[in-house]
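Ticket closed. Logging final result for Heavy metal-binding domain-containing protein.
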Amino acid sequence: MSVDPSQLGLPQDAMNRLAELQPDKKGHIFTSDLTVNEFLLVKQAGFTPLGLVLGTSVYHVGFQVGRWSKNQELDVLSQAMYHARELAMTRMQAEADLLGADGIVGVRLEVEFKEWGSDAAEFLAVGTAVKADDGQSWRNDHGQPFTSDLSGQDFWTLLQAGYAPLGMVMGVCVYHVAHRTFGNILSNLGQNTELPQFTQALYDARELAMARMQKEAEALSAEGIVGVQLDQRNHSWGSHTTEFFAIGTAVRPIRPDHEIARPQLVLSLDR
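Final structure:
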């Protein structure tokens, strides 16, 4: 199942740029944000870079108030942060699909709140589209190019170990951490003591983000998730409202019909 770029609002400039990157076009050159070392290892793994692909979404993040004294997820904000990232990722995949790519490596997923308003943010996904040299398809079970935020070195190592990337999976939770009462603050003055309300809030929020990331991996029929990053970001919401964001690359063993060339010389290169 290919991603339909016309339904995703890809601009005409992007379509023109991708047309110039088509592998069968005379004078074709590829673009890539891979380092030289990463480029060599991706090539050694049996993949050819086709071009830099990106997706973006400038999103208005809504408003939701949490109760002053209650730990709770702000589901309106969680949905906004998830949907905006998903739009950016899907548009990046649509560009890779237009190039006939099998996947995208070295993906970066960034969020930047803009100066024209604290509630407006740009979500950007960018990576290098690649195609397998052996002509076999490495797309995931949904028929989409795989996505991976692994470095070129880690991508090479993953394949050599007999695993294939399926896609980047993520989980989001925007959470309001309850304020402490004045009496609670006074009772803890001068003491070393755990703050159980805060502990529980941060624990619950991280668990929600992790569980949602795992659910995405299950939908891809993955065996596991590698390179997981679990970040906490306050953005512009203040000290008691924060986002927990979990992201990683879902993987599973390489299918029998995919053979990986295993070179005798193993390179050890730092990014």
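Helices lie at 12-20, 36-44, 75-98, 152-160, 182-187, 196-219. No further action required.
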